[in-house]
Amino acid sequence: MNTACEPCKILIPLDGSSAAQRAVDYVISHRDMFKLPPQLLLLNVQWKVATGNVKLFINQDTINDYYREQGLAALQPARAALDAAHIPYQYHISVGTPADSIAQYAREQDVGQIVMCRQGQGGLQTLLLGSVVAKVLHLADCPVLLVK
Questions:
Q1: What is the pLDDT of residues 89-106, one digit of tens each?
Q2: For residues 89 and 40, is the Cβ–Cβ distance under 8 A?
Q3: How confident is residue 140, by pLDDT bands cut at 50, 70 and 90?
Q4: Percent of the chain with pLDDT over 90
Q5: Mean pLDDT of 67-78
Q6: What does the angle CA 12 – CA 28 – CA 89 come to, to the nearest 5 degrees?
Q7: Local structure of residue 8 (DSSP, 8 states)
Q8: Which end of the chain has fewer CB within 10 Å, C or N?
Q9: pLDDT at 2 > cutoff 50
């Protein structure tokens, strides 16, 4: 657990949507409320696309390149905004189901808070799979700040 002398770790999950970018903008605009600059961790979770027989036709390196390209594209606006604000960060691209991956990464990194937008790309995927936000709220061991 973080002590008063250590910066807080803040996880910002990003799906590449303009809604998710609002979480980054919120952290940038409220950075002065921290005694020490927070350690920002950006996370993009790619849905696993290579299942079953797909791996018979596409090699793992190609699949990994796809995940990396899609993840970097989703993180690019956040990275550009943080670079422009001269705020350091780390980023990670994960593969799996978003809510589970977000909660697991937050635990692994001993995150003090998750800051995320209350809705991301959504659409049919949200109807079929349920809200990622609701699942993160249920699974997370740390506070979750939702940004409108």
A1: 999 999 999 999 999 999
A2: yes
A3: very high
A4: 61
A5: 97
A6: 50
A7: P
A8: N
A9: no
Please give the backbone phi and psi of residue 102, each rounded to the nearest 5 degrees, phi first.
-65, -50
Whole-prediction pTM value?
Answer: 0.85
3-state secondary structure (DSSP) of residue 137: helix
The pLDDT, as a whole number, for residue 36 is: 81
Question: How far, in Å, CA of 33 to CA of 15, rounded?
Answer: 26
Q: Is 73 in contact with 125 (CB distance < 8 Å)?
A: no
Nearest to 120 by CA among 17, 13, 11, 12: 17
Rounded Cα distance between 82 and 107, Å, is 24
Beta carbons of 116 and 147 less than 8 angstroms apart: yes
Q: Which amino acid is at 74?
A: A
Q: Would you say 11 and 102 are in contact if contact means Cβ atoms under 8 Å apart?
A: yes
Which DSSP string corresponds to 29-81? HTGGGSSS--EEEEEEEEPP---TTHHHHS-HHHHHHHHHHHHHHHHHHHHHH
Identify the sign of the CA torsion 103, 132, 77, 82: negative
